[in-house]
Write a structure and sequence with these properties.
This protein is of the alpha/beta class and about 500 residues long. It has helices at about 10-25, 35-45, 50-60, 80-85, 105-110, 135-150, 170-180, 195-210, 225-230, 275-290, 345-360, 365-375, 375-405, 430-440, 470-490; strands at about 35, 65, 70-75, 125, 190-195, 215-220, 235-240, 245, 260-265, 295, 320-325, 340, 410, 420-425, 445, 460-465. It has 3 domains: about 10-85, Winged helix-like DNA-binding domain superfamily/Winged helix DNA-binding domain (Arc Repressor Mutant, subunit A), CATH 1.10.10; about 140-380, Type I PLP-dependent aspartate aminotransferase-like (Major domain) (Aspartate Aminotransferase, domain 2, 3-Layer(aba) Sandwich); about 380-490, Aspartate Aminotransferase, domain 1 (Alpha-Beta Complex). Helix content is about 40%, strand content about 15%. The structure holds pyridoxal-5'-phosphate.
Length: about 500
């Protein structure tokens, strides 16, 4: 009996599956004879037509053969693609399932989980999450209009593949913006539109690194970069970030034979340090001497508060620096648009890598962004969010000053959309406990633990606070709550040495 009278499946489907599975698991041996369609219909209690259609399908799929005048038989040999599907005979143990056979790269990739999206956490009164921006109000309204217009004006020609390196008008607009705002030295041909900085990092790994190559990264630093280089098979060399960022002059022999150095000189992630000119020059001189490439990740330099603009590192050595920027911070992350400005000598391999990765970035968003920039909305938006973020940043700094002043060291408040706090009187071992307590008090703050490759050396707990999506009232309320929680955890970290009691 093959048909089980389940309401979920039609009798024909059940019959087909039943006979097929019986053939695959050997219950129906090769060349065994099957009943006529009339007998089958009777025994299964189905219409004869259904039995006929099922046999036809089984013939077509290679499970059955017909011998003229003699009837229907199981095929002597199953087609190869079906033989692999052979099921174990009923009752027999299934064959052992081992780990899938992966390439070396696939094996490396599996444990490298980059978490850039936030899983849905319970709502708290104030969430200092780093990442979301304040792309709202007027700009969002304009963006919607531009996006709808781009949809309305779409023609069949615009639905075709585009240039893998990006829409020429957008590459020209980005080159113009970078030259004007970031002192990047580049022509439109050097610009490649990518799916955010993350793709820029992946392409750099492909074009510039071989497995085993050494890559200098910042410690602490951006995990998206570290993971991308690990995926390329590189060995990471973490260089400690000091008050002047990464200073190659202090790294000695550890940076011998380095192929590539990854830096965020305009606003180090996560400490927020701005790399001074002397350290920039030392880095470039070292790269020149050793032949290393430099990857400059300029992810949020549109936001700079009360400090003079720093020019890009790329502008100082356009032949050696691969420059990457993103619209994730200044516009919004789900746009997945960013750009590379590569040295002239690297244009061809980077173009090839981008073309092979995805044959290019989506046309609709590129066209929307091009018009948004061309009509002056991008510049207006940057001015607006810079002013808004500046107010948020001032509120945060003021609130910290009022509530926790000398108990906390504030790092990186001159730029970007986040600050890092060193809690002078809370030991590192209690960081997780403090974060859990803060959560219970309605304020979510974040540990920078994922930004370190090695165990932290400093004794004090640290926090990262993003403020780009919080309004001033929320910021004040969040710091008030955090300050109350801090009190429960504080004790002098370097307790005076006990003098032995004389007895
Ligand atoms: C240092 C750094 N680089 C780049 C990015 C942005 O990456 P993407 O452009 O892929 O969104 C981030 C985002 O958090 C970042 O912190």
């Amino acid at each position: 009996m093959y048909v089980r009278r389940s309401r979920a499946e039609l009798p024909g489907v059940q019959l087909y599956r039943g006979i097929r599975d019986a053939i695959l698991d050997g219950t129906l041996a090769p060349q065994s004879r099957l009943p006529s369609t009339r007998d089958l219909a009777r025994s299964e209690g189905i219409a004869r037509n259904t039995a006929l259609r099922v046999y036809e399908q089984l013939f077509d799929d290679g499970f059955l053969v017909r011998h003229r005048g003699a009837g229907n038989f199981v095929a002597p040999q199953l087609p190869e693609h079906l033989a692999v599907e052979r099921l174990p005979a009923s009752g027999a143990a299934p064959p052992p399932v081992g780990p899938p056979r992966l390439s070396r790269r696939g094996t490396r990739l599996a444990p490298l989980a980059l978490v850039s999206w936030a899983p849905a956490l319970p709502k708290v009164a104030v969430d200092f999450r780093y990442g979301p921006t304040a792309f709202a109000d007027e700009s969002l309204q304009t963006w919607r209009q531009y996006l709808s217009r781009a949809v309305r004006e779409t023609t069949p020609a615009l639905l075709d593949y585009g240039a893998p390196a990006g829409l020429p008008e957008l590459r020209a607009a980005v080159a113009e913006y970078l030259t004007r705002a970031r002192a990047v030295e580049c022509r439109p041909e050097q610009i490649i539109i990518v799916h955010g900085s993350q793709q820029a990092l992946a392409l750099a790994g492909e074009v510039l690194l071989d497995p085993g190559d050494r890559v200098l990264i910042e410690e602490p630093g951006y995990p998206g970069a570290a993971l991308s280089f690990l995926a390329a098979g590189a060995t990471l060399i973490p260089g400690c970030v000091g008050p002047a960022g990464l200073d190659v002059r202090t790294l000695g022999n550890s940076i011998r034979r380095v192929r590539l150095a990854y830096v965020t000189p305009s606003h180090q992630f996560p400490t927020g340090v701005i790399m001074p000119l002397a350290e920039r020059q030392a880095l470039l001189a070292w790269a020149e001497r050793t032949g290393a490439w430099i990857f400059e990740d300029d992810y949020d330099s549109e936001f700079r508060f009360g400090v003079p603009p720093v020019e890009s590192l790329q502008g100082l050595d356009p032949e050696r620096v691969v420059y990457a920027g993103t619209f994730s911070k200044v516009l919004f992350p789900s746009l997945r648009l960013g750009y590379l400005a590569v040295p002239p000598a690297l244009v061809a391999p980077f173009h090839a890598a981008k073309a092979l990765a995805d044959t290019g970035t989506g046309g609709l968003e590129q066209r929307t962004l091009t018009s948004f920039i061309r009509d002056g909305h991008f510049d207006r938006h940057v001015r607006r969010v810079r002013a808004r973020n500046s107010e948020r940043r001032d509120t945060l700094v003021e609130a910290l000053h009022e509530r926790v002043a000398d108990r906390v060291e504030v790092l990186g408040a001159n730029a970007g959309l986040h600050v890092m706090l060193r809690l002078r009187n809370v030991p590192l071992e209690r960081e997780a406990e403090l974060i859990a307590s803060a959560e219970r008090a309605g304020v979510r703050v974040y540990s920078p633990v994922l930004f370190y490759q090695a165990p932290r050396q400093r004794p004090e707990a640290e926090l990262v606070l993003g403020y780009g999506s919080l309004d001033p009232d929320q910021i004040r309320s969040g710091i008030a709550r955090l300050s109350r929680v801090l009190r429960e955890f504080e004790r002098p970290l370097r307790a005076p040495r006990r003098t032995r009691e004389r007895g």
